């Protein structure tokens, strides 16, 4: 076996409750993660040195040096397995870059699975997730997929029972937002308001909607504590949210740290209607239609691989 390809999904946070800053600088979270059908594909191939190449929309915004999260994942696993990290990592980006949908984290999770397969490390999946948490708070969920509650800084996961299919429209913006900057803005806004920061807790109505597969109820209970901060840094997001809701979405929120906005539609046809309304409004760069929940990082069987890098 000379190369391995892993497909890995984007995420949207159905609830993102942000608590106080911890001594280590991270915020205590309750995050209801949901994996959706926008995918990156990560292919690792044996090579003379560790190199990264990237294809897809805004590929130029993705670093190809050792700061790339996938390259860091390769180096970390190589170190743990006592293995040389010399592989070619090729990223085929379908997840918006710096869009609040965990694109870099997805690539890290996929690179861990791909290299462990290539090197026959046989590392248990929960161990790969623990390694992933060293690279970023969203990485373990990118590996797990489905729908799950994340606590701590978002890395401690428990699957949430869910029924039904959820149809989503994502409004992509020009340019990204920096995750630390959005958390920082959230703190600044809270300090200015002078209100105490509540301990984050799961929304019972949201969990009930997921258990029942109640799409309108889910649309009504989407929340994101980083939304005001993202809008404060990118005021045009308000118009994007308004346009999606006016276009018939059952709910709309900023995805994670933004600037992508996520809209829940009643069904597949409804999603296409919302996407058209968003495109006509001129309030976003482009749209993507997707569904959830989907599984996490998985090896693509060789016979199903579309092209070699
Ligand atoms: C916004 C979310 O995407 C929601 O799922 C995540 O919380 C961010 O996860 P991520 O991109 O994997 O973030 P990390 O790489 O772990 O952290 C990047 C930066 O985000 C901020 N950060 C992240 C997670 C957290 N619980 N509290 C934080 O304050 C910190 O400034 C941190 O330095
Ligand atoms: N493999 C990667 N793919 C995309 N960006 C990467 C990658 N590795 C490092 N980065 C850097 O990380 C930054 C954030 O990109 P990413 O797509 O992970 O953002 P995000 O989806 O907002 O993350 P999150 O939702 O986890 O906060 C990019 O601007 C880029 O410089």
UniProtKB/TrEMBL annotation:
Domain (GHMP kinase N-terminal) ranges: 68-146
Keyword Transport appears in the UniProt entry: no
Domain of life: Bacteria
Keywords, sorted A to Z: ATP-binding, Isoprene biosynthesis, Kinase, Nucleotide-binding, Transferase
Catalytic activity of the protein: 4-CDP-2-C-methyl-D-erythritol + ATP = 4-CDP-2-C-methyl-D-erythritol 2-phosphate + ADP + H(+)
Residue span, GHMP kinase C-terminal domain: 206-281
Pathway the protein takes part in: Isoprenoid biosynthesis; isopentenyl diphosphate biosynthesis via DXP pathway; isopentenyl diphosphate from 1-deoxy-D-xylulose 5-phosphate: step 3/6
InterPro entries associated with the record: Dihydroorotase_CS, GHMP_kinase_C_dom, GHMP_kinase_C_sf, GHMP_kinase_N_dom, IspE, Ribosomal_Su5_D2-typ_SF, Ribsml_uS5_D2-typ_fold_subgr
Source organism of the structure: Yinghuangia aomiensis
Active site per UniProt: 11, 138
Function: Catalyzes the phosphorylation of the position 2 hydroxy group of 4-diphosphocytidyl-2C-methyl-D-erythritol.
Name recorded for this polypeptide: 4-diphosphocytidyl-2-C-methyl-D-erythritol kinase
């Amino acid at each position: 076996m000379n190369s391995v390809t892993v497909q890995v999904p984007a995420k949207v946070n159905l609830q993102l409750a942000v608590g106080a800053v911890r001594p280590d600088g991270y915020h205590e979270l309750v995050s209801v993660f949901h994996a959706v059908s926008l995918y990156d594909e990560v292919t690792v191939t044996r090579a003379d040195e560790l190199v990264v190449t990237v294809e897809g929309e805004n590929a130029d915004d993705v670093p190809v040096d050792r700061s790339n999260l996938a390259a860091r994942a390769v180096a970390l696993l190589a170190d743990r397995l006592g293995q040389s990290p010399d592989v070619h990592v090729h990223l085929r980006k379908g997840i918006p870059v710096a869009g609040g949908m965990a694109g870099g984290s997805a690539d890290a999770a996929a690179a861990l699975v791909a290299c462990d397969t290539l090197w026959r490390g046989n590392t248990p999946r929960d161990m790969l997730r623990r390694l992933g948490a060293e690279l970023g708070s969203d990485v373990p969920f990118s590996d797990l997929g489905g729908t799950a509650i994340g606590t701590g800084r978002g890395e401690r996961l428990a699957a949430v029972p869910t029924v039904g299919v959820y149809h989503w429209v994502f409004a992509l913006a020009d340019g990204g937002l920096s995750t630390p900057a959005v958390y920082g803005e959230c703190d600044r806004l809270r300090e200015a308001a002078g209100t105490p920061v509540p301990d984050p807790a799961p929304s019972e109505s949201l969990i009930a909607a997921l258990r029942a597969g109640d799409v309108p109820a889910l649309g009504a209970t989407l929340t994101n504590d980083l939304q005001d901060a993202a809008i404060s840094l990118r005021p045009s997001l308000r118009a994007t949210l308004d346009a999606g809701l006016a276009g018939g979405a059952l709910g709309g929120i900023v995805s994670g740290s933004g600037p992508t906005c996520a809209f829940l539609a009643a069904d597949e046809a409804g999603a296409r209607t919302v996407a058209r309304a968003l495109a006509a409004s001129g309030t976003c760069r482009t749209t993507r239609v997707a569904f959830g929940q989907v599984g996490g990082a998985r090896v693509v069987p060789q016979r199903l691989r579309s092209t070699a890098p």
